[in-house]
Hints:
Layout: E1 2-11, E2 15-22, H1 30-42, E3 46-51, E4 54-61, E5 66-72, H2 82-94, H3 97-149, H4 154-165, H5 170-177, H6 181-193, E6 197-200, E7 203-206
Antiparallel strand pairs: 1-2, 1-5, 3-4, 4-5, 6-7
Helix pairs in contact: 2-3, 3-4, 5-6
Amino acid sequence: MPEGIFIIDWDEYEGGVISLKYPVDLEIPVNFVQLLQISHSFNPGIMNIKEEDFNGLSLGNEVLQKVTVLILSKFEDAEDFKEILYLINDVVIKHSEDNLLEEVERLFLASQSVFKAREAVLTKLANEVNSLKNIEIDIKQSMDWFIKHEVNFPKKKILFILLRYGKLTSEEIKKYADLSNEDLLKYLEEMEKEQLVALKKGKYKSMIHYILE
């Protein structure tokens, strides 16, 4: 989300100077003012400068000798904000110094509301993903319990193991099944015939989701 806007003017004695900023208490690294002004004297187009403590998108206006800068949060993608910066530049062109701050403030607040809505959607999706991850953890922990406590039906235990860990070799199944190698291979052979498991490229996988009635 944009954190602020500032405009750099050219002064023949001081070089680049900030003529407007919003919010008014916006903190701007001093070295970036001159850096941006000099950079846009060679490239009047749009630029993204991303440093450890600064992420900004800037647009030079060659006719007005101004640079409009949109400060972004650290991890924002500058590509998402180019259209907003062009709109702000249009405001800079069309409005006089007297009411420019008011217009910039209006546009900045409008952009905030748009991106807050976007953030709300992303937050909702993130919460849903976390909820699904928690459900997955609960299921895995439940499967661990079944594997540990299933002692009477070895085939069922093998299925629980495959459901819990996915495709496994017989040696990998043996680590969880607490069965002798001879017994395990016997059960796996029987389960293949019963189409409960399938062996492919040396690994067994559960087939029960194909035979549910």
